[in-house]
Amino acid sequence: MIRLIYLHGFNSSPQTIKGRQLAAWLEPLAGRIAFDLPALPHRPGEAIARIEALLAQHAADDITLIGSSLGGYYATFLAEKHGLKAVLINPAVLPDRDLEQYLGPQRNLYTDEAYELMPAHLAEMRALSVPRITRPERYYLLVQTGDEVLDYREAVRYYAGVKQRVIEGGDHGFQDFEREIPEILRFAGWSAASL
After folding, report:
1. CB neighbours of 44 closer than 8 A, spacing ≥ 6?
2. Residue 192 has pLDDT above 70, yes or no
3. CB atoms inside a 10 Å sphere around CB 171
4. Which DSSP string corresponds to the chain?
5. How far is Cα 163 from Cα 116, in angstroms, rounded to an integer?
6. Quick one: which of 4, 41, 65, 122 has the fewest CB in 10 Å?
7. Claim: this prediction has a pTM higher than 0.90
8. Within 13 Å and on the Cβ side, how many CA atoms surround 33?
9. Percent of the chain scored above 90 by pLDDT?
């Protein structure tokens, strides 16, 4: 069975708009495409452990990771480690650098959970760094040039050689995400004739 696992970004949750849109879109395909949207802890090491446990439960499935922002960084690490396919939506390339300015008190935008972003978080992110992807055919990059949080050009350079869709305008939340879902499903291996 094809299984999609959506990995949300920093200070997000399974209530993320893109995750909910994807879940709603896949509802009629239940039984043919499985979908998981795990809640990821704010500690990178714990987030990876939670995803690894999910991967172990569904090892026989044809898994495609879908990662947004920090979730894209996690997806890249796990795709390389396990030989999985990954769809990356406005992914973070150097989150330890980008989040350094946010060290200190944080509040999750969806759950209202309060915690402190510490240097240890950034060190855990650095430990997940993939210097270079090994099999470009396993990746599909989706970026919007209007991303106000991350420089889309860093992702375009880092993921050079992979299937890329660079959309003018938009924002970090990735406007009109639903329009991209059929192509994401094709990339994951779902028959175009079935869409």
Report:
1. 74, 121, 124, 125, 127, 128
2. no
3. 13
4. -EEEEEE--TT--TT-HHHHHHHHHHGGGTTTEEEE-PPPPSSHHHHHHHHHHHHHHTTTSEEEEEEETHHHHHHHHHHHHHT-EEEEES--SSHHHHTGGG-EEEE-TTT--EEEE-HHHHHHHHTT--SS-S-GGGEEEEEETT-SSS-HHHHHHHTTTSEEEEESS--TT-TTGGGGHHHHHHHHT--GGG-
5. 37
6. 41
7. yes
8. 24
9. 93
Q: Which residue has the tokens 């240890």?
A: 120
Tokens of 151: 């420089």
